[in-house]
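ok here's the first one, seq then struct tokens
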Amino acid sequence: MERIIIFDTTLRDGEQAPGASLNQKEKLEIAQALVHLGVDIIEAGFPVSSKGDFEAVKAISGSVRGPVICGLARAIKKDIDAAYQATLPSRKPRIHVFLATSKIHMQYKLKKAEDEILRLAIESVRYARRYCPDIEFSPEDASRSERDFLFRVVEEVIAAGANTVNIPDTVGYTQPREYGSLIASIKNNVPNINKATISVHCHNDLGLAVANSLEAITNGARQVECTINGIGERAGNASMEEIVMAIKTRKDIFRGLDSRINTTQICKVSRLVSKLTGFSVSPNKAIVGGNAFRHESGIHQDGVLKERSTYEIIRPQDVGFVGTGIVL
């Protein structure tokens, strides 16, 4: 089986959701739960953003064993220095550098031309690589970037030492067929793409984060960035539990692919994140919602009592769901 790398950003992008503030103790508790869940990478925070975030990333790096521990940084030396120092205690640290590449971001946010963006991208990756052998680079707003410029940036950052290139749909703008085409075109137009893992990071502004992530996987992406319960900026991120269970349930489509996730821990971790962030899970939320395995229609109940697979494509115990399924 070929493994899909699960990059969990609940503690970074997830915590950026308005109202989802976590203290260091709570972050450590979630990080340890993610270890038991079996995630490959934990993006523990954005170290330069505050002293509290720096200390939380450092504490997780020093106490959590198993996954790679990742710190986020802008393409600025002080950010990269902070990410390095915060993840230094980890046995498997990663520095994740990002820089916007879309025309709208370059013109209005960064006020920089393409050549300067390319130079900063290369220099920041080289600088980070001096500290750490595991470097990820994200061309922010990649889905709205000019493709030829995006190909050029991806090629150059790989040459500069990036092991992973993440292609974010930062504002949840793209459609599945369009996003899959983007991933396929990167594979076909970046000469050194075989030297890096293609990652995807999708937002849910149009409700398509999971669909886009899955389409990217079918087109060659092998790392997926996601969060527990899909929490995150604005409308949230791709939901980890939905991605993992889609791959597990539809082996006919995702043939030969699997993740390391211990799916029996999914509901337990979902409830923990919900409790600590204060964000309740909608009853009809896929996989982890309270109604996900409950049946009220008499016709459905009759079918389930005779043969569960008539109306349940996932066994409740496979995701750790506890509770009765028949509602009278």
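and now the second one, same deal
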Amino acid sequence: MIRHFILKPPASDPKRDYQPPGTLNVSLAIILLIGLVTFLWWADQQAHWGAKIAIGFLFAFSGLTIYALLHEAWHQVLHTNQPVNDILGTFLAIAYGGPFTFLKHTHLGHHQRNRSIEESFDIYYSEEERNRRTIFFYFTYLGGFWLAVPLTSLVFIFAPSLLHGWLARRDPSVGAMLRGIPQRQFRRIRFEALGVFALHGALFITLGLHWSTWILLYGMFGVCWSSLNYLGHAGAPLDVQEGAHNLRANPVFEKLLLHFNWHLAHHQNPEIPWLYLPQFNDPRRERPGYLRSYIKFWAGPKPAPREKEDE
């Protein structure tokens, strides 16, 4: 049976009100949004691809912090003022490359489906599906995970009927994700998707960007984000709340991620803002190292635990 509980702070701790660090979050968001535009412009001015790639690394890792702030907005803990939370979240989503409402619903659905058959991407359940899962695994985590967002946005704009039709039936994981989005939100998502492409187009025109610069920088971010995003779940128990890790990470990198490496703490306490997650360590669980987990991750999908296969 899947267990549902919230891990509370130790009884000896005084009661606290874990309010979002709103001023800090807004300041970070503005700085990072300006920074991403600056990196795009700066990279476009470079004559040599080596310089463009170097700037691309700054762009990609800044994007990880943007995603961490966007993640706070989905859980309504970016800012206590909901309009501020959602407006800022919308701009962060545009910088990430997708519609805010679509990303929000798929993420909240992830909290309900975590480590289910539809979302246990690092394991396979039969030898017949091993090759398919392996191809899907490497495509997804070498950039396909992020690429799916702008591609799905195009489907929302031009062929939304496919989302509850052919696409939903083609793959159980995709179907589960799409069925979790209320039909009443489709028009709003379509409008937001149009806004994403319109604002990126305006950015091209305003900065005079060449398409190759945008593809390089967003491609680097897509690979970086895709390869790191599932690390907090890979190899975790097949349980909706327990199916995550609190990973040990370099302190500087942990700050860049806004404690996103404390992913078990987040799944056990999704209402807690990022600033306080280290206070919610689960002493029952080992904390794997981030780099070692990343290296092990690339071994690819493994067979499902026997007891799960037999259910």
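notes on #2: The longest strand covers residues 123-124. The two ends are 11 Å apart (CA to CA).
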